[in-house]
């Protein structure tokens, strides 16, 4: 029993939850001094005491014993201070280790198809022109037609060697992060919290791809503040990756006879992006006044002002064939969480179980599922 590992895990989990040592001690039914000594590593606790602590803070007992791998080549920026940052990075490190373990076990590793592009871009000047060029070349590498909308960005990224992890975190200041190849990636982690729209999930995935291609020199765990110029460049990349310039212009021109609001919402549905992404592209052509014009036109039509988190023409959850807990997103009729599903890790788990390389219990652990849910999935395999 490594007391330092246990103490480090307890401190990380406690701080992520925003609790004091006294609060955790109360939950575990022990004194504050006793808990403090366990967290500091100065005493060796009984297993029963650790079980009470784990139960009190809502984690598995084994989570307290697992060493934490420190990620270094990570781009993790957020617009707000995050107490859960260390906890997220620990979870991502474990997920990457599991993913790479299965790939190695099954000799089933995807080649990273953007490696040459990222290297070439590192020697070019920064700016919006570079971002637009990168988006165009990235689509060509993926054999996407110029007017072809991206229907499955998670699957698309996985097909070119990028690992995708949908991670639900109750935060409106964190949308995603990415990990460089040297740390077990390349990987993108997207916040799929139910209050964040599906369109935002998709845009965030494209945005993180932009960082992987354009800003590898900025992958440093010590950096936590957002770099506005790099964020803007990644936004330009994502916008043009999801909506190629000629295709966007063609679809926008085709809606010429519709009202401004209807034009924006129709183009939004075609490319499966947020209305904000459409307005952003229009602002490149017509100027920033386009944002105010849309808000005014939308309020004139509906009597409502759109807040930062709103997405117009949202469908109620019962319109989707998914559980209500997953579907509280403010999105239009063409999208649901099924538009952002990664499946490569699930395929690797199935192959490993069928080859008797891992147990069903281990498969459930890798997929972050309960054993009962894992059994249900296994019984449904055809």
UniProtKB/TrEMBL annotation:
Ranges of residues in domain HTH cro/C1-type: 10-64
Origin: domain of life: Bacteria
Protein's UniProt name: HTH cro/C1-type domain-containing protein
GO molecular function: DNA binding
Family annotation (InterPro entries): Cro/C1-type_HTH (IPR001387), IrrE_HExxH (IPR010359), Lambda_DNA-bd_dom_sf (IPR010982), Rad_response_metalloprotease (IPR052345)
SMART domains: HTH_XRE (SM00530)
Region (Disordered): 311-336
Sequence similarity: Belongs to the short-chain fatty acyl-CoA assimilation regulator (ScfR) family.
């Amino acid at each position: 029993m490594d007391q330092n590992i246990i103490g480090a895990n307890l401190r990380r989990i406690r701080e992520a939850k925003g609790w004091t040592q006294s609060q955790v001690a109360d939950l575990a039914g022990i004194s504050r001094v006793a808990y403090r000594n366990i967290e500091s590593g100065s005493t060796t606790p009984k297993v029963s005491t650790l079980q009470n602590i784990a139960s009190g803070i809502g984690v598995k007992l084994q989570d307290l014993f697992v060493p934490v791998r420190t990620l270094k080549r990570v781009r993790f920026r957020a617009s707000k201070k995050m107490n859960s940052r260390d906890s997220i990075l620990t979870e991502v490190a474990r997920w990457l280790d599991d993913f790479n373990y299965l790939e190695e076990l099954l000799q089933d590793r995807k080649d990273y198809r953007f490696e040459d592009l990222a290297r070439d871009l590192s020697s070019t000047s920064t700016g919006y022109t570079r971002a637009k060029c990168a988006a165009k070349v990235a689509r060509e590498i993926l054999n996407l037609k110029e007017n072809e909308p991206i229907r499955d960005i998670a699957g698309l990224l996985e097909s070119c060697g990028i690992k995708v992890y949908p991670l639900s975190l109750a935060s409106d200041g964190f949308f995603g992060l990415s990990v460089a190849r040297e740390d077990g990636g390349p990987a993108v982690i997207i916040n799929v919290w139910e209050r964040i729209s599906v369109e935002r999930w998709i845009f965030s995935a494209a945005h993180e791809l932009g960082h992987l291609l354009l800003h590898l020199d900025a992958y440093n765990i010590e950096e936590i503040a957002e770099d506005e110029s790099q964020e803007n460049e990644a936004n330009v990349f994502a916008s043009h990756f999801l909506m190629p310039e000629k295709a966007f212009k063609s679809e926008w021109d085709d809606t010429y006879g519709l009202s401004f609001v209807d034009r924006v919402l129709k183009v939004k549905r075609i490319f499966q992006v947020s209305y904000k992404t459409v307005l952003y592209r229009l602002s490149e052509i017509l100027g920033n006044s386009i944002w105010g014009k849309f808000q005014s036109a939308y309020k004139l039509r509906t009597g409502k002002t759109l807040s930062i988190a709103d997405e117009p023409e949202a469908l109620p959850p019962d319109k989707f064939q998914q559980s209500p807990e997953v579907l509280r997103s403010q999105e239009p009729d063409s999208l649901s969480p099924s538009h952002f599903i990664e499946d490569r890790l699930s395929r690797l788990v199935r192959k490993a179980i069928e080859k008797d390389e891992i147990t069903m219990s281990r498969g459930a652990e890798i997929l972050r599922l309960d054993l009962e849910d894992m059994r249900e999935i296994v019984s449904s395999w055809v």
